[in-house]
Design goal:
The complex is a heterodimer of chains A (490) and B (313). Chain A has 490 residues and is mainly α. Chain A has helices spanning 6-22, 27-43, 48-69, 73-110, 128-143, 153-161, 163-166, 174-182, 189-222, 229-260, 278-284, 287-308, 319-339, 343-373, 380-402, 406-416, 430-445, 461-478, and strands at residues 313-314, 317-318. Chain A is built from 18 helices and 2 strands. Chain A is globular. Chain B is of the alpha/beta class. Chain B is built from 12 helices and 7 strands. Chain B has helices at residues 2-28, 32-43, 55-58, 80-89, 122-127, 142-145, 148-160, 185-196, 204-220, 234-237, 242-257, 286-310; strands spanning 49-51, 70-72, 99-103, 224-229, 262-266, 278-280, 283-284. In chain B, a hairpin with a 2-residue loop joins strand 6 (278-280) and strand 7. In chain B, helix 4 (80-89) packs parallel to helix 9. Classes of the chains: A mainly alpha (490), B alpha/beta (313).
Chain lengths: 490, 313
Amino acid sequence: MLFNSLEFAIFLPIVFLIYWFVFNKNLKLQNVILLLASYFFYGWWDWRFLFLLVSISVFNYFIGINIDKNELNKKNKIWLITGLIINIGILGVFKYYNFFIDSFIDLVSLAGYNLPRSSTRIILPLGISFYIFLSLSYIIDIFKKNLTANKNLIEVLLSLSFFPIILAGPIQRPSLLLPQIVKRREFKYDQSVDGLRQILWGLFVKIVVADELAPHVDNIFLNFSNYSGSTLLTGAIFYSIQIYADFSGYSNIAIGTAKLFGFDIMRNFAYPYFSRDITEFWKRWHISLTTWFRNYIFLPLSFTISWRIKGERVFFIKTEFFIYLVASVITWALTGLWHGANYTFIIWGMIHGFFLILYQWQRKPRKRLFKKAGINNDHSLVIIIETIITMIIVMFAWIFFRARSIHDAFAYIAEMVSPSLLKFPQIHPLKIAILISLFIFAEWIQRKKEHALQIENIKNRFLRWGIYYLIVFLILLYGGGKQEFIYSQF
Amino acid sequence: MKRFNFKVLAFLLPIIIIGGLMEFMLRQMPNVYRYKSNYLDKNSNNIEVLFLGSSHSFFGLNPVYTKKRSFNASHVSQTLDYDLLILKKYENKWSDLKYIVLPISFFSLFEKMESSKEAWRAKDYCIYFKIQSSKYLPYYTEMLSGQLLTNFKRLYSYYWKKSDNIACTELGWGTSYNSKYSKNLIESGKEAAKRHRITDDQYFEEMTLVLDSIIGFSRKYKIELILFTPPAFESYRDNLDQGQINRTTQTVINKVNKCNNCSYFNFLEDKSFIRSDFYDADHMNEFGAKKLTLKIDSIIESKQKNLCLHNGI
């Protein structure tokens, strides 16, 4: 079930009313209804994959208990490794089987052997990357003693399949979600109202901004060889906004929905395009995924490498920077691969890894240089220039993310930076330009808030409701098509 | 909690009332789908020849030129699965039906309406034909299946401008492709051929099975199934993908060869259709429709004669 569907518009109030009116005083029943609702929500897409979700959750429940009950470190490790292999194995089979088989056939064909391609393709279950990551963090946190294994099956299953976050996050680790599940929840008026506002804003940016940009982006990326450099630049800008509006819209609806049930889900986006540098960008973009990779890949990897290196320098590079470099490259290649089984995603991850390393490398020398030259690092002009440079880097990387192949991405970029970049774009819809401007303006003035529709400070109710009605009107005006969320495909 | 529910309800109430009112008004407007559904509800037991299919039939087959009692139940972008659904809806009412005429166009075996740009039309079958053809809930409402602006325009056009939305004759032939407004045949041919060219064949198997079901249906009720590829202007023909054409015609021929009550006629390169018969490169205007219908009618007549001879009448 998608958040922007009629089915969800019917489903949500029904679950809300049952949850608060029928089972208000019984936490156990509230959790049961949430779990059933979550399975219904997930199974609506394809009930067969519900078995996969339930099996994985139950498996991790038992793994968690076994890790927790063993005091001996070795046995713990065996249970953890079993859990990791099974979880990653399932993700590998469902998400990367087709990719690895095709890559193997391509590789063998280079040696002159042509193997037949199988017509059997494995269907990617919706949200698998998200709920496998939830499962992984559940068992790793228990192993690290950051979390105690919960004996209540319902509570664990709910933490691994809570419907607002099951399809595309935010990846709210069970160590943060479980404490909210086991605690009695009370209806809070302000939290619920804010949840509704956040849902409304999410729907607006998805339906009005992202979905309006989608056909232009699809057209430009599909027929890029027919367009001028300036049009391709427009396409890259449009896609940068589309993917942000699409995914942040989804996250806002997810977080807002969770608020309606008394849950606080971690923030996933914090106005990332207003970042001054690439490090800041990744602190603001898909925060739950970045946090996950930092906690479970980057930091453990950095520690592991640091234990093995004794000297002050490795290959003439300071050990500290060398560790950062190796850990970053691996983490970002995996981040790219997490997004999808295509080399374009790996390249996209590596580009970000490269610029993050470059940023770390130039940070201190630049500081010294600025000091010498008497440039104030916090001068508005410096901030604007840095923000634009960050935006260009991110946009450049998005081209790889969106392109069908690496070859297409390079061809797109080559055409984009050709002399035709100076021509007037062939595609320049005024309506889109107005919508984008309004969207950016709203985000800019509300950048200190959790989401752009946190307008409780407007005391005049008529004005507030007027804004809500205007947004609903725009959603209805632009809605009507079937558009999926980009990130639910990952 | 009560305060929250009250405020949410108060906020939503005007939207629900206005939306409900617009839905009601939209459903009151006459349209081709409603007309055809009503006609079939009342007359399906009197029809001898039924024309099904997409716009190639809708604008290309005018029942007034047939000698038998005919009706055109086709519509723009109506794919084979919807033809089958219409046949099945009136399954027990086709008491007089002797011939089903169905076009097999360049795209017929590769396209499914609900997966095309014209997917929104599914709502007309769900609402007016009362065929539960889609799992997508918005298709059961006028308001949620289309854009608000489009619905405003439709309401304005019907209630304010008093314009009639029924663009078909009493017997279901589409009237809007008139020769007075003909399009550029060269450009429209290139465009249409490009539009109809498939990028993948994911629906081929499904649509072939649907065609089998239509053949099975006609066999079950001893109805003669006449399949035909409609005529097209050279700018369309020349730009078609030869592989796609061959695959389509070969599939149909194979099926027809195994079926006693089926026949197939290919008018794609029929030279008797000239420039003045076309509204655009792949659609007939009123002159072309007359010509094509008369050809189909003569096929029906000759089949009827053969049948009479065979039965010794």
